[in-house]
Design goal:
The complex is a heterotetramer of chains A (570), B (619), C (144) and D (193). With 619 residues, chain B is α+β, with helices and mostly antiparallel strands. In chain B, 28% of the residues lie in helices and 32% in strands. By secondary structure, chain D is an alpha/beta fold. The chains are: A alpha/beta (570), B alpha+beta (619), C mainly alpha (144), D alpha/beta (193).
Amino acid sequence: MTAVAPRSESAVHTSKRTAILEDRPVNLDGFVEEWPEKGLVAMESDYDPQPSVRVEDGRIVELDGRTRDAFDFMDTYIADHAIDVETCEAAVATPSVEIARMLVDPRTSRDEIVALGRGLTPAKILDVVKLMNVVEIMMGIQKTRSRRTPANQAHSTSAKDNPIQVAADAAEAAVRGFAELETTLGVLRYAPLVAIGLQVGGQTGRGGVLTQCALEEATELDLGMRGITAYAETISIYGTESVFVDGDDTPWSKAFLASAYASRGIKMRFTSGTGSEVQMGNAEGRSMLYLEIRCILMAKGAGVQGLQNGSISCIGVPGAVPGGIRAVAAENLVASWMDLECASGNDQSFSHSPMRRTSRLLPQMLPGTDFVCSGYSGVPNKDNMFAGSNLDTEDYDDWNVIQRDMQVDGGLRHVREDVILQVRNKAARAMQAVFAELDLPAITDEEVEAATYADSSDDYPDRDVLADLEGAKSVMDRGITGLDLVKVLERTGFGDVAENYLQVLRQRVSGDLLQTAAIFTGDFVPLAAINDANDYAGPGTGYRLSGERWEELKKLRHVTSAENPEEEVV
Amino acid sequence: MALVIGVDIGNSTTEACLAEVAQGAVHRLASSLTPTTGVKGTPANTAGAVTAVRRALDAAGRPSDALATVLLNEATPVISGLAMETITETIITESTMIGHNPDTPGGEGLGVGTTVALGEVGDVEAGVPVVVVVGAGADFDDVAEALNRAVDRGVDVVAAVMHGDDAVLVVNRLRRRVPVVDEVAAVDRVPLGMLAAVEVAPPGRTIRTLSDSYGLASTFDLDAEQTRQVSPVARALSGNRSAVVVRTPAGDVTDRRIPVGTLTLSGSGRSLDVGVDGGAEAIMEAIGRVAPLDDVHGEAGTHVGGMLATVRDTMTDVTGQPASEIRIRDVLAVDTLVPAAVRGGLAGEVSRENAVALAAMVRTSRSRMQAVAGAISAELGCETVIGGVEGEVAVRGALTTPGSAVPIAIIDMGGGSTDAALLDRDGSVSAVHVAGAGELVTKLIDSELGLEDREAAESVKRHPLAKVESFFHVRHEDGTVQFFTTPLPPHVFARVVTVTPEGLAAVPVRSSLEEVRRVRREAKRRVFVVNALRALAQVAPQGSLRLLGSVVLLGGSALDFEIPAMVADALAPHGVVCGIGNVHGTEGPRNAVAAGLVDAHAGTAAGPAPERLQRQVAS
Amino acid sequence: MTSDVSELTPADYPLSINRPDLLRTPTGKALGDITMAGVVSGEVTNEDLRVTPDTLVMQGQIAESVGRRQLGENCRRAAEMTAIPDEEVLAMYNALRPNASTAAQLEEIASRLEGTYSASTCAALVREAAQVYAARTLLAEEDS
Amino acid sequence: MTAAVESVRTLTLREVGPAERGTRPDEVVIALSPAFGEPFTKTIVDVPHAEVIRQLLAGIEERGGSARIIKVYRTADLAAIAHFGAKLSGSGIAVGVLSRGTTVLHQRDLARLSNLELFPQAPLLDAEVFRMIGANAAQYAQGQSPRPVPTRNDQMARPRWQAKAALLHLKEFECIDHARAAVEVEPVITRVD
């Protein structure tokens, strides 16, 4: 409530123009002055350490001005796991400006700059990216992004935890082009039913979409091991030892968890972002970006294939300081440069101003990242249980137009209404069949009808929450797995959905989705930074929006036909 | 040797009993339990039945193609409907009184004076007794200061009525303490310039003057006729800790009965009309007079009419039988109280109004079990046989309870209906279904406690209560104290909780544990105990419970922590031995029908095979 | 069964398409055996839908062949962990949280990893953690 | 019921001695953070600290409770402040308040990071909410079980307030004085007309 109240009026009489400006949504956003001594500064701080590295007996004994006896556990982990001992002294000795130019210069290959990056310390990396303006940072992202083809991720959640809504919106998101779908809950006990909704809906919309349910570790891992979800993402890491410990973890516990996921064949990435440490009051006087670079190197050292970063839930902090959004772009660049899959934020309510929301998005959307949003709200923001995203369903058409205007691939496409209604209806019917077969509380025809045409959770009949929660518990108690769901779908006439789901489960055996930035094409070909490695080398190279895909993106809701200007292109 | 499985499709659960049968010998292998799919006795049951069969086969490690025969009960569709109608309401006209109970009124005693707004108090002449009316938004410090100033000037401030929750704060700041009633939401509708009385009792006490007709008479100087007129006001205020009465020319408070429609009961060749607002006792008495019931209709255009029509429509949908052929065979009416906002109240006054809850039950003659049997045969690829009416088969199953003997009666307490059956010495079986069971109990608990939360009401019904007295101990409803070594979760701190297998769950009420417990036990008594007696009386020889001998309790509610004891206590005076079934000495009160089907098929159970006994009391 | 495979290269990826011959399920089925018919008949079980240690080692080799040393190491630790039951994996993770275990408790986990599960890489990670936790006072109080 | 505060009140916290364990079984301790009242005078949304204290005390008084106020200097961590207060409270109940307004209801037997009721979004706390928090604290102290104060939520609080909250948090940290023990204070609320 208070957040939308206008600012207190000043006693001074103001002009009409000032009154108009005062009322602009951007003035509901908060802005603060920097305070570098305390780390309330984006990336340019006199209090960040100077780069240095020294190796003795095959071991790093000095890192960014600290000797080993003064290392905190982040220093130790990074020195022992992230940095290449053989190359680091030479790498750190390379002038920063030269490295920055290599990042931008198309004639330096990705392999070359990534190899050099393996020997750099956090302070050195910061020293390099500080030299780059936002356009150069975008150049760097364009080249260092690990996967050649950019992609996108959606949130599919429900304010009422309605599994039918989650299924229908997941189906729509999948058919619109998202490669990954993520959900979470209001009432945690609903998780099994909502996770089933996400998976069934996703595989109805487009075979091969990967799904995730953000929960506490034990349940999240359990749903993954049963094959009800396909990957995991909300494994948080932090840039200072004290904040890491406050989060009840260490680099070693998180590294162990990373291996645990891989051992079950489940794709996983860590999450971090600028601003979290200063938000918790323990930035130890370092800039937000310096601390985020430590997170990125910790993730790399743990051997996790990727990282979700770009401030994420702390976006209000870098968003309020000078140069903050440049720093957010820079953290995505560093994650990419360190050869990690980068799911690049744009996933939390960021600004009251539509113009500012768009400008915050462009540094990721224009160069393309592995997942431009992590994620884009595939439901109206009021249904978004991750507390709202920078983009939601109301922005679908704007996004499609920006892709077409700029000839940039943001991972989505315009889909005709009849196709959307068809997949939403089918997803809801598939859920109806699954619930009936598993003795879960019935889904009525009225609910299927509502799911077909709905926008938000308000448009659905209320479920019997008590009965649903008992059903959710029975799913866990009975040990229902992804394979059981495949059988049910096959038996109830949803053979194509069953086949898609089985293909996703089958990938567990190959481990192909464990490689960096792996996603599935519609034909179930794993696409990772190996068989689809980014080969950008300047104009005319790398991923280009052309051919069939470009024809697809030319389509919008309303385009006047050139052949017959009295009609629109369908 | 043949592998057979008995499947019992009940209102809420489908049970199966898998056994090998050879020359009359039965070797039971496994049993299973799953929720019933669809309305009992309709083709939608197939899915649940197949699931139950598969689970039992899985449990026994047998392949489905080894199965020779599926035995199905003749499940008569029973649908129950529930409705609750408020039949009294309290109405206040012209804001003569404010009878709500704020948590924290201020001061003590009685003040009588003329109502005046806070803003006007400065203009009042010295010596005039006034009741100050304080609107929304006033700060307690400012109010107290204004009142103190008035008193200093000689104004006789005798009481106050306030919008905010500030009474104690204001009184604490007054140099002369007076009674103050607060949290009066519509304080702006209190008439000004009228004679008013404000009374606040000491903590833990109730008001004495305004809740007494003669007290009101002396306060407002009323004559005998006027005194008679204000007696409803006095009655409405009794039991409150605080009250305000304003004397207005036409003010009144009434208590009226709401006509909510009549029930037309037909049976025994007669037809009787009974008004629902007459209460449960009148309804049940009328039902007794026309028993056995042939049908019941509700007055068109009333809520009761609507409810009975819905029950009939549902039955038409599931059986395909025209609505005109569907008969309501039983009704259970229960008196209850529901909290309702008082019409015309100024402070969101709540009064506990009388209401009647109704459960109705429908049966059809036309079962569609043949269709279920066909679908099961197709799904499992084996023979399916429909055998026996469930009441009869249940008795057979119950008879396997160690220590039981003929004659034996059963009571099966389910979700929608309560069933009773009797196996007599001559081998004849009588069975009856009556309306009202677990669902109605949940509804009564929900409305009487004002929970508006079915999950919480279910929990209250199913689990014993406790009060969390500290983070390290709870006091159970039986008075025992349990200690914990790790602190209990904060959301149950100081609350009345249910003790569930998953831990403690807070009951969202402010009532005491005793009150919650009383409501729970009363609800169970009014439904289960009443129905057990009612149903048994219908199957008992000459309607006499004394001739029953022993009664075995079956079904999910027989697993309840207190219902069996409540039923047993009610039956004890009739010399009836009552206990919880233990089918085959292993299954507890579950699986009686499924096991009974197998035994009947093998021809080993006591008494002749079911085909030969067909005496249905209520058909 | 596939341990004698020569070093894999990026050209082998994706294994599911380019080298299905190398892939087996934990029960020894080929990838091609995971079909809808197999699922319906009950031949394919949940056990078949898990990754084997051999496959994890192969994916690790591919990662290392494109310079992702740490991802390769993670795959090796994961290969060792396939043998550990789910509950125990979670218990070990919880024991590695800050101030959750004493030095002796961590050493016990390391020994168990090494002895019971032949998980030497995982054991090394736990021992390394124990050393750092001691230096940074992140071990649990000794007596409890 | 926004206590239409037309007149402005100021708050002075007068030190009365070291913070000690209370004996009244129904008392509530209000534990304040290092910067509360001095140097800061209002919450993140400009609710005067005088009003925060006045409404908390009014809520406690309305429910017939008694209160003591202590000020903590050695930590600016809300959970630690409130838990410290709870341990000194005769009833075991304390209200912890940060200078930016974030508030928690705590009980001494709870784990430090647990709580009875938490109000994490300081921008959504106004005078009315502080009154209700005080009333609930008094009821907990008397062994009653009040309905939890309804929590509010606002997605767009992040863009407007997240950074200012961080800044205030840092400022509060600046006021930590490890050498200074907690003290009991008496609020002197003066009306400035």
